[in-house]
């Protein structure tokens, strides 16, 4: 969410009515999340000036660990230098820390491609935004779940019940520090997650939603503490208890 919002912001800055705007003091402390969108808190160090040049050798974009040769345009300006400076700063201050973590395994190669392409400046802001929107579409639609074994059949569902809330086993990347609360696309994906965790014996899909509209599922190491809840369904591993006992 943070990286996508930042890319949308940089897309606007690259195509603003004032021209391409560069953030000269690009630091995480210069940004704040407001209603799920990243905002710049200080525009004092923003500039529309692009580096003047006479030849391509005048257009090297230098960072502490990397340098990038750019082209000198016919009008004597280094082509895309403001856009590329913003994008590489987004890569080194945000993407490298946030993109490798917490995505579903099927989407990680796509995020790795974005990370590598922006780190080498092979992508401009247009290509980067398009790549992020593709990942978001796959994530929201559940298309990344294709060609998976169906595991929900290994669970018994009990409508009108849920497990008692409390501390339980922890997992990464949980939305709660007290247990294992993860974003899912469907009950089938929740079953796959539970089946992959040795301590998981049951799960319940909550009424909570993430910023993409995906529900959160709570994964539990037991299923014995059940309480009535007309809006809930608890899913229990068949191996955890026989149908007769239930």
TrEMBL record:
Residue ranges of domain FAM69 protein-kinase in the record: 2-116
GO cellular component: extracellular region
Keyword hit for Kinase: yes
Alphabetized GO MF terms: non-membrane spanning protein tyrosine kinase activity
Keywords, ordered alphabetically: Kinase, Signal, Transferase
Claim: NADP is one of the keywords in the record: no
Any single GO BP term: skeletal system development
Pfam family, one: PIP49_C
Residues of the signal peptide: 1-19
Superkingdom of the organism of origin: Eukaryota
Protein name as it appears in the record: PKDCC kinase
